[in-house]
Amino acid sequence: MGMGSLMAFIIKQRKKSNNRILPQEMEQQGIIIAIITALTSGAAWKFWEQKMKAKQEEKELNRAEDFAYRDDLKSRVARLEQLLEESNTKVLELTAEVHALRTEVGFLKKENDRLRG
User: Fold this and answer.
1) CA 33, CA 41: separation in Å to the nearest integer?
2) How many domains are contained in the chain?
3) 74 contacts 37 by C-beta, under 8 angstroms
4) pTM of the model
5) Whether residue 76 has pLDDT greater than 80
6) pLDDT band at 28, cuts 50/70/90?
7) CA distance 107 to 109
8) Per-residue model confidence (pLDDT) at position 25
9) Are 32 and 6 in contact (CB under 8 A)?
10) Calpha distance 55→49 (Å, rounded)
């Protein structure tokens, strides 16, 4: 029963009793209004408390997701840096090997020309 419904009920009761309100009725109305106010204010507080708690949990979840994403990116960058270093080392090894093979081919061509000639 909402506050508006309660007030409508009280007004109806007044009309029925020809606008005479007995002290006992007035006391009962005060108690009813106090109870309804206490119940609705407690419910409102609980609602706002739950809403704020849900909002805070959502922020914490988003923050945790951001940290997880950041950590994933850090690990991926570290892995890519490691692969780059390994690749550079391999390229240097292959370059040295190609240079040695070119030198050997040059000597073999000279030897081949000498043997033919």
Assistant:
1) 12
2) 1
3) no
4) 0.46
5) yes
6) confident
7) 5
8) 67
9) yes
10) 10
Say how far apart CA 27 and CA 47 lie, in whole Å: 30
Which comes out higher in pLDDT, residue 34 or 26?
34
C-alpha span between 88 and 93 (Å, rounded):
9
- 8 Å CB contact between 10 and 28: no
User: E strands along 1-117, which residues?
Assistant: none
CA atoms within 13 A on the CB side of 66: 6
Domain that holds residue 60: 3-116
50-68 in b/e burial notation, b at 16+ Cβ within 10 A? eeeeeeeeeeeeeeeeeee
CA distance 26 to 19: 12
